[in-house]
Amino acid sequence: MNVRRSAAALAAVAVIGAATPALAASPSPTPSVAIPDGLYGTADPTYDGVWRQSLALLAQDTAGVVPADRAVAWLTGQQCANGAFAAFRPDPTKPCDAKLMVDTNSTAAAVQALTALGGHTAQTGKAVTWLKSVQNADGGWGYNPGGPSDANSTAVVTGALVAAGERPEQVVKGGKSPYDALLTFALPCTGDGAGAFAYQPDKQGKLTANADATAAAVLGALGQPLNASPKKSDKKADATASGCAAPTTPEQAARNGARYLSTALAKDHHLVSALPGAENQPDYGNTADAVVALAAAGHTDEATAALHWLEANAPQWAAQSGPAAYAQLVLAAHATDTDPRAFGSTDLVRLLDATGPAPKQTATKKPEASDTSDDDGSSTTLWVTVGAVVLVVLVAAALFLARARRRQQP
């Protein structure tokens, strides 16, 4: 899940048969459409408008930012009457028609963002209903409704179901759940790419390891959304990190996938994009997604090492790629319990906020479950209270002694 594959890129992948990691999209210098008010970023939103808006809102929420009303309104205004979202709906005042290509990825991302923000039950309920209606007989989803299931789409929809309070194992079509579909993309423990996930089988049914699909599928198999929180280091995960077992359950498939990602990151702490005829390049977006997957799987050390590499190398990529890239880095920081405002020497939250309308409220530091600082004066109040109690006790003791002495006098 890099900045996001466009529908055209996904179609090309399907023709090739085995997906290759997508390169990060660069902002279009001359957008073919006017940039709507409330939308994050200045690049052409035709293929990623809803996706990047959803990621931006989701990332801001993890950092304690309350986005502008018009940013949220832009996203909700993109929804069709049947609950689905397209990558971009140029004129929200016109009803969606058959010419508008709605897709599962945009819809699932919007569900995750709107659920995190709260107060959008009607919109997310309609979107989930639509997603269920286009589930394939193998239990999974393709990018476009009716298309063959793929690991990435199935994973992001699974995350949306979980975020919306659904139980993915109970969302069944043809007797198959999303977890059953994800298992069909899991490679065995022998041969090239052992333990990884494929994007889709090729025409001969062969599975080819794909790091992008693996990062997505690990999250999906764990039943985690895009804004997954860090999992405490798992002794069982650590014990299986050096081995691989048959992927007969979603949990085991996720462990295998995490092991594959850990091995891929071991040397340089980043993944690469490999395209025919081109020199391999660092894949910043895929590395960020891998950090989230590893952290969610309890592989804290590997996730942290990759995050440190991103801190040193990814800010320039994000500046060139736009809000979705900043959001991916914020989500990677969140997954490793790292403050995105101190991402190396970069304040990711400030830079993300600057790509869209000014937020209603922003925190100055990473949200914490329990805050012992005295920013709100609570610590000072506590010590004043303790001092007052001590003073009362001392005064009472002094009065008691004085009375006792007076009684003892002849």
Structure description:
- A hairpin with a 7-residue loop joins strand 3 (271-273) and strand 4.
- The radius of gyration is 25 Å and the shape is globular.
- It has 410 residues and is mainly alpha-helical.
- The strands form two sheets. It has a two-stranded antiparallel sheet. A two-stranded antiparallel ribbon has the order 3-4.
- The chain has helices at 7-16, 49-62, 69-76, 104-117, 121-133, 151-163, 178-183, 211-221, 235-240, 250-265, 284-296, 300-313, 315-321, 323-335, 348-353, 378-408, and strands spanning 85-86, 102-103, 271-273, 281-283.
- Helix 6 packs parallel to helix 8 and helix 10 (250-265) packs across helix 11.
- The longest helix is centred in the last third of the chain and has 31 residues, at 378-408.
Task: Give a brief outline of the structure.
This protein has 16 helices and four strands. It has a two-stranded antiparallel sheet with strand order 1-2. Strands 3-4 form a two-stranded antiparallel ribbon. The chain is globular.
How do the SSEs run, as a string of H and E? HHHEEHHHHHHHEEHHHHHH
Helical proportion?
40-55%
* Gyration radius, in Å: 25 Å
List the total number of helices: 16
The stretches of 5 or more residues where confidence is low (pLDDT under 50) are 3-28, 237-241, 369-386, 406-410
Shape: globular
Number of beta strands? 4
How much β-strand is present in the residues? under 5%
Let me know the average pLDDT.
Answer: 85
The span between the termini is: 92 Å
SSE class? mainly alpha
Largest sheet: 2 strands, antiparallel
> Spatial order of the strands in the main sheet?
1-2
